[in-house]
Amino acid sequence: MSSSETLEAIRQIMEDVFDVDDLRVDASTTADQVEEWDSLSHVRLIVAIERKFGIRFKNAEIEALMNVGDLVRTVDSKTG
User: Fold this and answer.
1) Which residues of 43-79 are buried (b: 16+ CB within 10 A; e: fewer)?
2) CB 50 within 8 A of CB 74
3) Most buried pick, 1, 22, 62, 76, via CB within 10 A?
4) Is the pLDDT of residue 55 over 90?
């Protein structure tokens, strides 16, 4: 899966988790830029991504995420 495909899959998961239709995100999008992205929805997002891609994040990996691009790179590194 390419990074752009990973980004699109994550965007779709975010739409579902945040209950927002046509959510526009790119690699530089941060939680502060998405009104519905709070601490609870962040946990739900991480769990949904883990399920979708069949991966597990370490706590340190989650804490290091600064934007959607970091999330895409981390998923890509785990799915090879």
Assistant:
1) eebbebbeeebeeebeeebeeebebbbebbebbbeee
2) no
3) 76
4) yes
CA atoms of 67 and 70, how far apart (whole Å): 5
- With 0-12 / 13-18 / 19 or more C-beta atoms within 10 angstroms meaning exposed / middle / buried, residue 10 is buried
pLDDT of the residue at 54: 97
pTM of the entire structure? 0.93
3-class DSSP state for residue 49?
helix
Contact of 78 with 6, CB cutoff 8 Å: no
The average pLDDT across 46-70 equals 97
CB of 26 closer than 8 Å to CB of 68: yes
Q: What does CATH list as the number for 3-79?
A: 1.10.1200.10
